[in-house]
Amino acid sequence: MAGTFRLFVAIDTPPDVMTEIGAVREKLKGARAEVRWEPDEKLHCTIKFLGDTREDAVPSIFSVLEGIAGTTSLCRIVYRTAGCFPDRRNPRVFWVGIEDDSGELLRLQKRIDAVMVRFGVEPESRPFHPHVTLGRATGGKNMERLLTIMETITFVSRPVLLSEIAVVRSTLKPSGSVYATLQTFPLIGKTGPSEYIL
Known about the structure:
By secondary structure, the protein is α+β, with helices and mostly antiparallel strands. It has 4 helices and 9 strands. It has a single domain, classed as Alpha-Beta Complex (Cyclic Phosphodiesterase, Chain: A).
């Protein structure tokens, strides 16, 4: 009998940008608010959460994603500013945003969202807001202080060429979830200057 994998589709963060995002996280940490902060290895952008997925369905999912990636153009994205979900009145998730002026990332997300229905994964009910999660609130202590610091952040990364997507497995353990990349799929298109490569 087939087992299940807890999977999601993601964009990895380039090491130098991850260092900068980590610095934003550390600045927010200074508020000493009740937030569970994500470690560096989890500073990615989730495109689609697949959840518990039958092991025997994984090859078909890989095949579909390879086809989508192979017909998606490379695009430049910029990591910019910090914010929270759902809003300042009830901040639960803190993030660094991602901007994609071409709209290619949004089109990619919509294609993946639509095709995953055939594997029993529900379409997203909320608009796609590409971001890197920095932490999740666990209480309200010092939250106003954190929000005040957040408003002072003017972070903007270098342009990054989005050149691949990854399927990541999340294994739940007593100490928290552990991520492992199972497969990456390159996007089609001509590569730009080397400093833009993801």
